[in-house]
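In pairs, describe these two lines:
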Amino acid sequence: MPIDDIAIAPPADGGELIDTPAPINNTLRLGLEKQAVGNGTCRMVADSGTALPNIPGEANSAILMLEAAPDADLTATLARIWLDGTTPTEFKGLAVTHGAAFEITCRRDLVRARLFPCDGLNHLLNVQYFSV
């Protein structure tokens, strides 16, 4: 018998050996589902930190996507982001590229998020906000 096919002995206490997979329990979700509650679009302001646009009061997470401005290098880091209220710079912050999508999962981080265009161009920021 191969090592990965070792027989499993029944429980010593005489209990039943269950050899079928347990069903998936969807009740653990407790009815908490994300719902889209708003969106925002803005052009990033060159040489300054751009905050997220139009944050709805009930939003506690968001998906962001950056679209390059005309004439931008699509292979370069177009922007940088910090979520703690600090304004990023051309060389400091989490890198964001053209078409990159990422999620922010905390209301406080939505409010404090700041983006900075690395190349001085006015890239388009699209945001979809969610509430749980």
User: Anything to note?
Assistant: The chain has one helix and seven strands. The two ends are 51 Å apart (CA to CA).
